[in-house]
Amino acid sequence: MNFDFEWTALLALIWRATWQAFVLAGIILCLTSTLHRWISPKWRALLWAIPLARLVLLMIPASGLSLFYLLNFESQNPTPAVAISFSGTGDIGLIPTLDSLQPNHRISRTETAQEYSVSQTSITRSEESRTNAPILVSRLLTYLWLTGSCIVLCRWIGSRIILARIIKNSEQLQDAGLLKLIEAIQKRNQHWFPVRCFVTNDPIGPSSCGFWRPTILLPLNLWSDFAEEDRQTIVIHELEHIHRQDVLLMLISRIAITVHWFNPLVYLISNRMRREIELAVDSATVTNFDEQARHDYGELLIRLAQQTQGPVAALPMAGKRSALRVRINQLTSPIQDSRSKSALAMGLLLILFVTGLSDVAQTQEKSSPTPATASPEKETVPDNKKQNQYFISGTVQDTQTGKPVTNAEIQILVASEPDPDKRVLKGTTNEAGRYRIEVPLGNVQLWFPTLKPGYWLMPEESMQALVTTPEKPIVNHDLQAQTGAVWNVHWKGKLNQQQRQQLGVQNKDQPVRLLASVQEVADDAKRAAWLKGEPVSFQKANATSMNYLDEEGRGQLTEVGTSGKYILTLVNMSAELIVAPGFDNSQVVALRRLPDSNTTQMMDKEGRKATIKNGTATINNGVPLLIFVPKASKPVGNQKLVGRVVDAEGKPLTEVRVGVVSGTQGGGSGDTGVSTKSALDGSFSLDFPIYDYGNQAADKLQFSVVLTQKGYAGMDSRSIAVSKNFVPIDFKTLTLNRGYSLPIRVLDEQGKPLPGAIVEPGNSYALRRQIVRTSTDGRAILKDLPSGVIRASVRWGTKIKWINLVISNNESENREVTIHLKEFSSATTTQAEKAKPLTVGQIAPTWEIAEWSDGRTRKLSDYRGQVVVLDFWGLSCSGCVTSIPAQKRLEKKFAKQGVVFLGIHTADGEMSQINKLKQSEQWTIPTGIDRGTSILDSVTGEKYGVQGYPALIVINTDGKITFRSDVEPSKNRETYMRELAEASGVKWPPGENASEAEMIQMMNQMQYTLLSREIERVLKMK
To answer: Which of 222-231, 248-257, 379-388 has the lowest mean pLDDT?
Structure first.
């Protein structure tokens, strides 16, 4: 269909939505008429919602499955409007239609002038007026449409206001029978939100409304004009509306009418859908009714139809009188639903949803020349780049010669990717040393690129954080490769099944990529500990190079750094390489096995030496080959892990993911990648083979399990050590509590959203699985969190922040948390030397507080003459949070005696989260945030010499410190704790199988006893 004028973009979209909805409505009318006895009303209502949804969604995604490939009522090549440019050259510019705005449509000014050569003198006033006429008509239509939409919207808002007033002036339902009925049906149908029911004096019929707060409105005359059975039927009818969420379908209808108020089609479709909704509810209401009860229900509808209907914003039970005949006819000949009929209806619904709510994909360019008016593309954006694509690209060059480094494997870590196989993206440099890797929007990280032998990267380049943005979709990151001596190596070992699985190999025929690495470790003690299999930590990253070995274990390694002291990791073993300065590994003249050791010494022609530990060497033409024969790992046992998973009510949970974490006592731990699912009774069982690797004793191993399930807060179990005889480890009954969600928004210092920021909870292995990436507006939702306090890291390139988030068990309190990121400064993380604690008897110094939770200002001198208890704490301190019940008891006990309780939070606190915790715990003690930037430079904490958290300090009426909990007691600590436990009435030491809840209760009681004793002692001295 063509018009003599050009539509504006909005009107064009409205027209396209209109004719496509007309086509859909025609198809649905034919289907529902032909298959009337096969498609029940509940499915017919959803079918009629599809054309309404098309009217609401002015823009829909393109798809090759679109129905409208077959039907199109728009011109394929609309004639572009011509705007004449009165420049000296007489060039003509084209105003293209929306469909012609393709990125590669570029026509030079000279080409356009040649194709559309028009002399300035040929332009007449009549032609100019014809050019302006379409614009005036288009504007007029737009203003008329906008005016009508505003009127319809105002009427709808007015009806909502009327409805709100009716509800406000109504009384809550007091009928015990109906209340019991509502409660029973709510429980049976598992409604999302509790249903409210009001009785009103207004002359309206029974109605229902609301999604978040579903409400039933009943007129008062129901108790005078209708029997109790009728009232129950009415309530059942309205509850069925609420259960079906019909208010959402009506909302779609209302939006469609607001946008297409001028279109009779939208009213016809809305009325048809409304009728099918009522038919569906009638059918569900009378499902179990006998013939007489159905007859009575029909009479009830007729009686209600004679009364005044409810407000526009509600769903009246009687509906429209025009549809009453159809509803009553259905009661006499109901449609019996079945699986086959439901399958047919669902199939039709799915087909129409996919084909009807997708548009024709624009795959071909217009035949007529229609150049885009968009600005030219940036040089960094390739012509074949699609929209919403982001790339990391760059070159790898020899830092000394500037020559390209080819065949370098560049790896990009996408930390938020849930699929382990897609978490690391890879690309290889070409002959020019260039690489290009497609990445998601936002934060990614360069992840230990593997260069060819002879090259390595500085530590800061191996894990560089990178960020793409909509404004900068392609980030260029060049790498400067350092050079180092190359060593030939041969690893002669075999992998057991467990090691193959850890390398991602699932079957015997799958090839294995054997990885070897060199790390510079200058510290002799740390190298020795590493070789013994003991845990080793480093303050900063080591210089590292990595290379792959072939299937026979042969390959090359590259020296890194300057110290000449290295740890070699070859697949499943470690070795030590010490190289003297200037040693030439291409001119080795002698080898010597050092006595009583597993070390081989090499000497070059200048007499310089190098040694290899845990390996041997051979020489071929002066070039050594380092040979490593790892000790064969043999199975020493099979550890069975068993347990049972239940919810908070003790009901078994099935399909819970149970992951396995292994570690060593006093050392580190790691996720093994092994997992299973809980059975129907909640039980789980898996076998974990134990191997002897030589440097790791089996009796030091320990295991824990990680439980995750959608809708529940994930948890890590406690670690249990392996016994000598590999007795099955029974984790007993593990309880998963309800999980909560917390919306997050990440902004920069100026308040600009940061898309693709990484938000990662870090309290446990289970919580780390809830890592999320923010959307284009900087928003994300952390899901399945436990109530309490979690610590999360937020990263966007070089902007990093650690934040403590309070998760309330009241979902309504978990409102969006805004996090502002700024450039990360390593100075704030440098461990400072602890200040010496102020001793008992010293004057308590003044505090320096950034802000108080109640907004007031305070000085310590304000409380002279009163006993003051200072609680130095932080959200990141789990013991601080779990001790809140003891603090509340102490305040309640001593508040009437003039004792002042104040909290001082570490300097990294967020007042919004502190107040949220205080509200959740009903903790009224005022809390101030210490001055500073982190827990390490909290000013007041340093003044008092706080040694750890929580630290409770009691100050007497003279302003002197009389007690502090963060210093060692004067007597033996074990004796001290035993005496305190005895005074508190708790058992000490606690039992081996004491639960976490029991331990918290025990420590709270002991803290309460200790502080009570000290405060009472100070009060007696007044």
So the answer is: 379-388
759: amino acid identity, one letter: V
> What's the pLDDT tens digit per position in 777-813?
999 999 999 999 999 999 999 999 999 999 999 888 9
Over residues 856-865, the pLDDT tens digits come to: 999 999 999 9
Residue type, 874: G
Q: Considering only CA atoms, which of 356, 361, 367 is closest in space to residue 97?
A: 367
Closest C-alpha among 199, 272, 201, 288 to residue 240? 288
Tokens 């779609």 — which residue?
252
Q: Phi and psi at residue 315, in whole multiples of 5°?
A: -100, 100
Q: In whole angstroms, how far apart are CA 108 and each of 119, 371, 374?
A: 19, 9, 13
C-beta of residue 442 within 8 angstroms of C-beta of residue 476: no
Beta carbons within 10 angstroms of residue 12's beta carbon? 19
Report d(CA 161, CA 154) in Å as an integer: 10
Q: Which of 399, 395, 390, 507 is nearest to 458 (CA)?
A: 399
Pairing of strands 215-219, 315-316: unpaired
Q: Residue 965 and residue 805: Cα distance in Å, rounded? A: 26
* Mean pLDDT value across residues 121-133: 40
Tokens at 346, concatenated = 């669902």
Q: 515 Cβ partners below 8 Å, 6+ apart?
A: 546, 547, 548, 549, 571
CB 925 within 8 A of CB 845: no
- Mean pLDDT (the chain) is 83
Compute, in degrees rounded to 10, the torsion defined by CA atoms 399, 401, 402, 408: -70
Number of alpha helices (DSSP H) and beta strands (DSSP E) in the chain = 22, 50
What span, in angstroms and rounded, lies between the C-alpha atoms of 547 and 211?
59
List, for residues 554-590, the tens digit of each pLDDT value: 999 999 999 999 999 988 889 999 999 999 999 999 9
Residues 444 and 419 sit within 8 Å (Cβ to Cβ): no
Nearest of 850, 866, 858, 849 to residue 960 by alpha carbon: 866
pLDDT at 952 over 80: yes
pTM of the model: 0.59
DSSP 136: H
Cα–Cα dist 332/350, whole Å: 31
Q: Which residues touch 509 (CB under 8 Å, ≥6 apart)?
A: none
Please answer whether residues 869 and 887 qualify as being in contact, where contact means their C-beta atoms are separated by less than 8 angstroms.
Answer: no
For the record, the structure tokens of 473 come out as 């979709």
Two tokens, residue 512:
């294995």
Res. 434: pLDDT tops 90: yes
For residue 565, CA distances in Å to 77, 448, 505, 616 come to: 72, 20, 33, 17
Q: Whole-angstrom Cα distance, residue 489 to residue 566?
A: 14
Exposure on the CB side of residue 741, measured as CA atoms within 13 A: 9
pLDDT range class, residue 369, cuts 50, 70, 90: very low
Closest CA to 756 of 444, 1002, 321: 444
Q: Which residue has the higher pLDDT, 169 or 916?
A: 916
> Which tokens in the block code for residue 1005?
């009681």
Compute the distance between CA of residue 197 and CA of residue 170 in angstroms, rounded to an integer: 10
Length of the chain as a residue count = 1022
Tokens at 949, concatenated: 């958290």
Domains and CATH numbers, the chain: 81-123 (no CATH), 389-482 (2.60.40.10), 484-630 (no CATH), 634-736 (2.60.40.10), 740-805 (2.60.40.10), 835-1020 (3.40.30.10)
Measured CA to CA, the distance from residue 21 to residue 122 in angstroms comes to 45
Greatest Cα-to-Cα distance within the chain, rounded to the nearest angstrom: 115
Q: b/e map of 301-316 (b: 16 or more CB within 10 Å)?
A: beebbebebbbebbbb
Residue 619 and residue 477: Cα distance in Å, rounded? 41
**Residue 789: predicted pLDDT:** 93
